[in-house]
């Protein structure tokens, strides 16, 4: 069998890639991806040369695999490297388990300053591990219950769920009590240049984080075609001091507010608690049963626990390999000051 060539995606590949996507991931996922595609791959402000960062495996005229990625400016111990999130990776079903996935992973990795993966399928997680990508996940998940329904469990009988609700009611009342806001919070439609300045000020505070300048934030959280986000800015003495991005949704088990992304100085405890209280109020107004967030940074998690969040089991696996700057092996063991959220990669979709 001929060895497939792996090279960059060209506009005329689109139909063949769409067809392969449908075969590997199914019709619904393919439809959802089609709706996001232009935004996700073409409009990313960090695309090198303005082109989508996608590799395809060709066998003659046929396309038998792809690795589609999301380039980001990654900050690693104060240095900027061009990283990219690996996301839509696939190999034609009849070609799987013959080494083609490995060729795609390695081609991507050779071409980027850091290769990152978040929320992986079982197959790709195993392949990352087989190829010895540093495994630093999962990114912790935190939940704050707001109503008794937050404790419902789908596999338990109704009567038991009622007893759990009754027993947990005092806890819910205690956690959900209103607290005053410590600074001004303002809803916004877009991120202005003051957020780029905020990011530049805060970047050195994180050992690893995706760059959150205004161009990235507007693309990611204002321009996304598949979901609508709410954005709250923290203002102190007339200056931008932080933000929270969130949305409300219905899940089979109840209403949830997702705290998708946020940024504030990790030492600005009042600032972060104020943003959390703002999201509490918004969630309560929408009648949400709980708030869910993902956060890697230990300082942020500590404040979230103080604010009534519980850490629960997370399935958001995280792997990262830094190539563009020298990091010692221990770098991957100390992740307490890394800032990674649900807003990273294409996890919220
Ligand atoms: C993930 C994927 C791209 C890997 O491509 P591939 O050509 O099969 O990968 P390779 O042959 O280079 O590597 C095989 C290794 O990948 C992992 N792997 C691949 N498919 C797997 C599966 N179905 N179950 C468990 N592990 C799997 C294993 O580590 C395997 O090693 P092994 O064969 O020694 O056990 C391919 O399996 C695929 O398209 N899967 C479906 C789509 C998908 O899950 N995409 C990831 C989205 S995050």
Structural class: alpha+beta
- Give the low-confidence spans: none
Helix count? 9
Which small-molecule ligands are present, each listed once? Answer: coenzyme A
CATH class of the largest domain: Alpha Beta
Outline, from the CA principal axes? globular
CATH superfamily of the largest domain: Gcn5-related N-acetyltransferase (GNAT)
Overall radius of gyration: 21 Å
| Mean pLDDT value | 94
- Just name the CATH architecture of the largest domain: 3-Layer(aba) Sandwich
Helix-strand pattern? EHHEEEHEHEHEHEHEEEHEHEEE
What key attributes describe this structure?
349 residues; alpha+beta; Aminopeptidase; seven-stranded mixed sheet; 9 helices; globular; binds coenzyme A
Provide a concise account of the structure shown.
Helices cover 32% and strands 29% of the residues. By secondary structure, it is α+β, with helices and mostly antiparallel strands. It has two domains: 5-130, Aminopeptidase; 141-313, Aminopeptidase, CATH 3.40.630.
């Amino acid at each position: 069998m001929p060895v497939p060539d792996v090279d960059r995606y060209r506009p005329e590949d689109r139909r063949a890639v769409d067809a392969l996507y449908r075969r590997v991931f199914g019709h619904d996922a393919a439809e959802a991806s089609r709706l996001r595609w232009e935004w996700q791959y073409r409009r990313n402000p960090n695309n090198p040369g303005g082109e989508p960062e996608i590799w395809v495996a060709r066998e003659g005229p046929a396309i038998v695999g792809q690795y589609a990625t999301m380039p980001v400016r990654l900050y690693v111990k104060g240095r900027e490297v061009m990283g990219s999130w690996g996301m839509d990776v696939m190999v034609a079903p009849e070609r799987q388990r013959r080494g083609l996935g490995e060729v795609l992973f390695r081609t991507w990795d050779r071409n980027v300053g850091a290769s990152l993966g978040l929320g992986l399928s079982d197959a790709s997680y195993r392949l990352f591990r087989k190829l010895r990508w540093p495994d630093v996940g999962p990114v912790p998940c935190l939940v704050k219950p707001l109503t008794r329904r937050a404790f419902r469990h789908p596999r338990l009988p109704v009567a038991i769920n009622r007893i759990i609700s009754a027993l947990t009611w005092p806890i819910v009342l205690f956690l959900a009590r209103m607290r005053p806001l410590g600074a001004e919070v303002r809803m916004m439609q877009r991120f202005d240049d003051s957020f780029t300045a905020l990011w530049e000020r805060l970047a050195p505070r994180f050992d690893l984080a995706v760059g959150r300048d205004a161009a990235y934030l507007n693309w990611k959280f204002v321009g996304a075609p598949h979901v609508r986000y709410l954005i709250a800015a923290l203002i102190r003495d007339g200056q931008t001091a932080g933000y929270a991005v969130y949305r409300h949704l219905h899940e089979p088990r109840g209403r949830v507010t997702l705290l998708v992304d946020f940024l504030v100085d990790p030492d600005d405890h009042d600032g972060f608690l104020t943003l959390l209280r703002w999201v509490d109020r918004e969630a309560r107004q929408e009648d949400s049963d709980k708030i869910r967030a993902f956060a890697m940074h230990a300082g942020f998690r500590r404040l979230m626990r103080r604010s009534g969040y519980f850490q629960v089991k997370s399935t958001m696996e995280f792997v990262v390999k830094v190539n563009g700057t020298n990091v010692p092996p221990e770098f991957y063991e100390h992740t307490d000051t890394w800032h990674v959220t649900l807003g990273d990669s294409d996890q919220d979709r």
